[in-house]
Amino acid sequence: MRTISAVFASFVLATGSQAAPRVATVPASNITQGNDGLPVLPVKMPAPRADGKVVLQLPGGVERETTINGELQTALSAFIADRGSPIAAVIMADARTGDILAMVEGRSPDAWGGNTHTALHAKFPAASLFKTVATSAAFEIADFDPEKPLGLSGGCGNVEPSGMWMDDQIVGQNYMTMRRAYGLSCNSFFAKMAINQLGLGLVHEFARKFGYGQVPAADFKVDAGTLLSPSATTSSSYTVGRFAAGFGMVTTSAVHVANTMLAIANDGKRIPLRLFKDSPATNPDPKDLMVEPETARKIRKIMEATVRGGTASFAFNRGRPRRLREMTGGKTGTLMGRHPVGLTTLFSGIMPLEKPEVVVATIVVLEDHWIIKAPSLAAEALSTWVDIKEREGVMTTAGELIREKKSTRYRSQARRKGEGRS
Predict the structure, then answer these.
(1) What does the alpha-carbon distance between residue 152 and residue 131 come to, in Å, rounded to a whole number?
(2) In this predicted model, what pLDDT tens digit does every residue of 252-273 receive, in sequence order?
(3) What domains, with CATH codes, occur in the chain?
(4) What pLDDT is stored for residue 167 in this prediction?
(5) Which has fewest Cβ within 10 Å: 126, 320, 409, 421?
């Protein structure tokens, strides 16, 4: 069976009809064809045209319309620019089709040494997003119970060479469930689970399943990230534990992160990202799974802990994103990056968790000071998408959940007022 990339690569780039004349103020952005037959995207995406469409141009003048929502693209570009244009990237995609709804970057890659659009840059550290790999292996192979307490010593912050985190005794409050550990991104929990329940080989196998070290499936050219696993013969428990917790030599891109979220949102089925409207529709092989359907559903279930009381809760506790708090799930990551240099923050998310409609991947590099972090950028992206759909009069599952919550709150307030009068 041909791979998704092969299907896209075989598509003849010259097809497609001439689009409506572009607004003169929008510069031409050419795409070229790579050696693998996939189009090479420009470092900077063009602004939406007057009609709201984002169009890329082939050599010779033939235009290809993208799936990008112009209003969403413009709003997120302005949001990042208003916050100092940090090194940042956001991709939002339709969870059912893989169509890219927004692909936005912050500071121009020319300013920090990148040679692709920031969303395609594959040298960001995967950091704690890698914990989802170990979590999937634990669910699928070790039949791990997310509510079962695991003895924990030394706290969550570091995986020390001393091995204190390996202690199995549950004393007092020194324990944690996987759900809570995932939400808080507890390093020692995942290091210990990897050593006691999984092993290096299994973690590496699932890292490959998640596409680490491989080219993400998309209808445009994307580089592969890095996956350097520790040596099975010379590595210590400390080294393997740190690898599973997200401190290994593993890099990723926003495109790759979005790819993994698409699979989790679709019960494990691999869904390619699609940027061009004239790309052939794909019909993923139902047997080509990243993880088993039940594993994907379990991951979605514990992803809620990150947003409701975990490492991303600050981004969803106030303002417009608060209405999305009970329907959104995700995973955060934070680690010092080398290219570009800076504290890299990441967020991978799905909304709604029960019936996914969109996935989001955000990356923000903190240099001199904290302006925004990746979870805040994701919360803004999700909120803006909901706002746009409401203005368009499009009924979404997310919108229905928001209305239902408002209605429940209104009835509760009315009941309390009635009880007060009696």
Answers:
(1) 17
(2) 999 999 999 999 999 999 999 9
(3) 67-407 (3.40.710.10)
(4) 57
(5) 421
Label each residue of the chain as H, E or C.
Answer: CCCHHHHHHCCCCCCCCCCCCCCCCCCCCECEECCCCCEECCCCCCCCCCCCCCEEECCCCCEEEECCCHHHHHHHHHHHHCCCCCCEEEEEEECCCCEEEEEEECCCHHHCCCCCCHHHCCCEECHHHHHHHHHHHHHHCCCCCCCCCEECCCCCCCCCCCCHHHCCCCCCCCEECHHHHHHHCCHHHHHHHHHHHHCHHHHHHHHHHCCCCCCCCECCCCCCCCEECCCCCCCCHHHHHHHHHHHCEEEECHHHHHHHHHHHHCCCECCCEECECCCCCCCCCCCCECCCHHHHHHHHHHHHHHHHCCCCHHHCCCCHHHHHCCCCEEEEEEEEEECCEEEEEEEEEEECCCCCCEEEEEEEEECCCCCCCHHHHHHHHHHHHHHHHHHHCCCCHHHHHHHHHHHHHHHHHHHHHHHHHC
- pTM equals 0.87
Residue 40's beta-bridge partner residues?
32
CB 331 within 8 A of CB 345: no
pLDDT at 287: 82
In which region does residue 219 sit, left (phi positive, over 0), alpha (psi from -120 to 50) or beta (all else)? alpha
Other C-beta atoms closer than 10 Å to the C-beta of 307 total 31
What torsion do the CA atoms of 324, 330, 334, 337 make, to the nearest 10 degrees? -110
Integer-rounded Cα Rg, in Å, for the chain is 22
Q: Would you state the torsion angle of the CA atoms of residues 345, 300, 275, 395, taken in this order, to the nearest 10 degrees?
A: -120
Q: What is the pLDDT of residue 120?
A: 97
Cα distance between residue 348 and residue 112, in whole Å: 23
Q: How many CA atoms lie within 13 A of 218 on its CB side?
A: 31
β-pair partners for 138:
none
Q: How far apart are the first and last CA of the chain?
A: 71
Phi, psi of 288 (to 5 degrees): -90, 85
- Stretches where the chain sits below pLDDT 50 are 1-28, 170, 411, 422
Spatial CA neighbour of 228 closest among 212, 245, 215, 217: 212
Beta strands 39-40 and 55-57: pairing type?
unpaired
342: left (phi over 0), alpha (psi -120 to 50) or beta: left
Closest CA to 385 of 371, 397, 373, 370: 397
